[in-house]
Design brief:
Blueprint: E1 8-13, H1 21-26, E2 33-38, E3 44-51, H2 60-67, E4 74-76, H3 96-111, E5 120-124, E6 143-147, H4 155-165, E7 169-172, E8 183-186, E9 190-191, E10 194-195, E11 198-201, E12 207-212, H5 218-221, H6 230-239, E13 253-259
Parallel strand pairs: 1-3, 1-4, 5-6, 5-8, 6-7
Antiparallel strand pairs: 2-3, 8-11, 9-10, 11-12, 12-13
């Protein structure tokens, strides 16, 4: 059902009491303003402007009757916050930020390809979520070591890496062994609850970088509402609406986050 492939960009407008007594007496909370925005492939998302009543509550049943299960996948516009004890739920990405990070890290390794012969690459993937995602890094490093709690799951990846690139994949459950690598990727590093990923240069300047922002394709940018997180928006399109044209994008910039 299409209801499973929808999300809503939501702006909540606080109750504004009419100044005139008679207007206050007859005042009603306006109906929500709802626009359905199509995206490629037949999916779409909603832009919703909803109005809170004088107690700060929202007619959630009425909203659900209009946008269905999209109330469980909400992106809030800047300045909006969900009411307390609400059944609405904010959308939290589970996949796309990691896709962005891997593309960003791969771009960095290609930019510094002259270091390939000396580069020892470490990758932290405790739950073995990147079984296919690490293969493109093989041509860009002298060695690759992955730290994971699921060594058996990585055996097929190790076989493929050896067959396709002639590079043996080293596997360990001891994160300390990654300290010897010249460059370390932490795809699931998070800040303030957001998964961003982190690139650590463990030799020389010992810097750390993460990605930020995203340059959306023109077609997608035209549909992106104002005052929302563009990475969050792109994540919803990729994970909910299955817009795979976003799969090769990196973060727009690399930000230095800490001198180690």
């Amino acid at each position: 059902m299409w209801g499973d492939f929808l999300f809503a960009v939501l702006e909540l407008v606080p109750f504004q009491k009419e100044k005139h007594f008679w207007k206050r007496w007859r005042q009603k909370v306006p109906e929500p303003e709802i626009e359905a925005i199509p995206v490629r492939g037949g999916a779409y998302f909603y832009i919703v402007k909803a109005f809170l009543d004088k107690t700060g509550n929202l007619d959630e049943d009425g909203l659900q009757s209009n946008i269905g299960n999209a109330i469980y996948r909400v992106i809030l516009k800047e300045g909006s916050a969900l009411p307390q004890n609400t059944k609405l739920r904010e959308f939290t990405p589970t996949l796309y930020p990691t896709v962005l990070f891997l593309n960003t890290a791969l771009a960095y390794l290609k930019e510094t390809e002259n270091q390939k012969r000396e580069r020892t690459l470490g990758i932290l993937d405790a739950d073995a979520k990147l079984l296919d995602g690490i293969l493109p890094f093989a041509p860009l490093a002298k060695s690759i070591t992955v730290c994971t709690n699921a060594l058996q799951a990585y055996e097929v990846t190790a076989k493929r890496m050896l067959e396709q690139y002639g590079l043996p994949l080293q596997m360990t459950q001891e994160s300390e062994k990654l300290e010897k690598c010249s460059l370390l990727l932490e795809p699931f590093y998070s800040e303030n609850g957001k998964v961003l990923g982190r690139i650590l240069l463990q030799r020389g300047m010992r810097d750390a970088f993460r990605g930020e922002d995203i340059d959306l394709p023109t077609e997608i940018l035209k549909r992106c509402p104002e005052n929302i997180d563009k990475v969050l928006f792109a994540s919803a399109l990729y994970e909910i609406c299955n817009i795979k044209t976003l799969k090769n994008l990196p973060y727009a910039r690399r930000k230095r986050i800490k001198a180690l």
